[in-house]
């Protein structure tokens, strides 16, 4: 076992189970002719994983005094968008990865054409689900959907992936941080932000939660970079050393392993501090932050 | 000149100009590092074309007694989603087309990785734009966004493209009609449906407009199949005979050229008849229907 950072944290598995059960129950179509497309979408969507983003959404709902399950449609939509981005990132024209979470990637099983469409389909169905099933004030739903699409767009996930594949803008430490802020950070932040908007929350709580989510994205990415170097293939469910193979700048290549670990701890402390200012029942958000810092995979 | 169906129709170019000007003015990001991604998105989005879908949306607004420009954000979003689907359809793993509207396709100019991301980016930015800029009752905006994502999803565009690339379900005439209904028809229908929902219209007008939109999608596809056989490469802006090259079943391969022309005329007559029941100022919708039947490219 080669932990990124020593220690172990309790993860809110009951929220994870709620998310898994909800995702498992989603059907995209009743049409038999597109059954294999749906199978490809479910192959990637139900490949396991900690469901960090939707679990964050559910925990944020709880922190704001609501039932976690109230935001399941949006939480599931966020996981579907995350999954679509993984399918496209793994494509031969992008990172060309054959393994993800210990399973063959979508294009390896279903072919490149179906994998592209499975990603496209998950994106469309994510928003359709959120806009169909989410209960709450209409203005909150519109604001949350807007935040989610912004996080997925050019100033978010897609822009970050563009910077990554073209190695644009990662020429210095600020560029590196910006790349990851767009590629990973914006969607993690949106997992919290969407719920704040859905619940129509305002005041200090929203500011604290916003700062928490932003720092959490940074912790997540630094630990990801550390695990790519120190991780075990079997535990990671994908080959380690991918970043080096692609000649990518990472927090580790930029700062070295020890300094990267320090940076992760610093951002984690900032995230926890931001929660203190937020008030409410933030125990599970704290658990998620601790888990992200100390995760092994 | 080899017209699909003889005759010529007046096209509402003033609406097309409004759409073009609006699309031209959209900026996706102020970030310089992603400028080339934005350039790739604009390369395909601003490649010209008749803008049939957004022009339909504007004409529907007029038919319902509103100003055409009231629905520009949603109209533009529909064109952006259409463009994203063209970029992905043209990819080497899909139809592998090098030319579109007389210009090299996105992946030929910017590479496959950037083209995939340009498509993904257009989809996200389309919804972001609609959810940010569209004015009107919140419930109408949610309903319209839901209709749009449904038309883009597994029971729509993505499902239809899946049926097309895998040649699933096109084994008979009903399968062929279903394929095109999903791949092309649903987004054309959504161009009308979204505006009905945005405007909160109800009653006979909405039923008539719904029937009109559904038949119009059929006319569009039959004429597309005819033009692929009879069209001139220079006029089409892409190589004709693509369907035959891909061994696709089309209305022409299924029914022959003459019967296909008859079917197009029949669906066009149905579409026009549906408008009569809709009431309102439907002159421009009629013009669009006539144009779709008699277009040369």
List keywords for this structure.
70% helix, 2 strands, 297 residues, two-stranded antiparallel ribbon, homodimer, globular, mainly alpha, Farnesyl Diphosphate Synthase
Can you describe what's shown?
2 copies of one chain form a homodimer. Chain A contains 15 helices and 2 strands. In chain A, helix 2 packs across helix 6, helix 9 crosses helix 10 and helix 10 runs parallel beside helix 15. Chain A is globular and about 45 Å long. A two-stranded antiparallel ribbon of chain A has the order 1-2. The first copy, chain A, has a single domain, classed as Farnesyl Diphosphate Synthase (Orthogonal Bundle). In chain A, a hairpin with a 2-residue loop joins strand 1 and strand 2. The model of chain A has no long low-confidence stretch (mean pLDDT 91). Chain A has 297 residues and is mainly α. Chains A and B meet through helix 2, helix 6, helix 7 and helix 8 of A and helix 2, helix 6, helix 7 and helix 8 of B.
